[in-house]
Design brief:
The protein is α+β, with helices and mostly antiparallel strands. The protein has one domain: Ribonuclease H-like superfamily/Ribonuclease H (Nucleotidyltransferase, domain 5, 2-Layer Sandwich), CATH 3.30.420.10. The protein is built from five helices and three strands. A three-stranded antiparallel beta sheet has the order 1-2-3, with no helix packed on it. GO terms for molecular function: nucleic acid binding; poly(A)-specific ribonuclease activity. This is Probable CCR4-associated factor 1 homolog 11. It comes from Phoenix dactylifera (Date palm).
């Protein structure tokens, strides 16, 4: 079972109403306006245990892809900076998000599973990205 966790800036706008169309429009606006900073992928078995790739449980794996084409807004990235993100290095050594998306789609990883369970961390925003 794959899981995907996007790291992004804090939201541009917060919902003021619980109306479906209004919330959907705000979600779309936030996803379109906020570029990913990092994308994390994991694979797990039916019980939710991360794959150990024959290490007999000694190691579990998560792949973190640091992207570079995002704007730094200190007011919305302070929580990530306090968690150790070095935004200057990400801009230099990060992956182009368009190239990452292209490679992820062409790998078949995203489209190869017909019946999939999804694990989300931020719900609709995970699916939006």
């Amino acid at each position: 079972m794959p899981s995907f966790e996007p790291y992004f800036h804090e939201l541009y706008g917060k919902p003021v109403s619980s109306q479906g169309l209004e919330r959907s429009a705000l979600l779309k606006s936030n996803v379109n306006g906020l570029h990913l900073i990092r994308a994390c992928l994991t694979l797990s078995d039916a019980k939710g245990d991360l794959f150990d790739f024959s290490t007999h449980g000694d190691f579990r794996y998560e792949w973190d892809f640091n992207l570079r084409d995002f704007d730094i807004h200190p007011e919305s990235t302070n929580f990530l900076a306090s968690d150790g993100f070095n935004f200057d290095l990400l801009h230099i050594h990060g992956i182009d998000s368009g190239h990452f998306a292209q490679q992820l789609l062409s790998s078949g990883f995203v489209q190869s599973v017909s019946n999939i369970d999804c694990i989300t961390f931020t719900g609709a925003y995970d699916f939006g990205y």
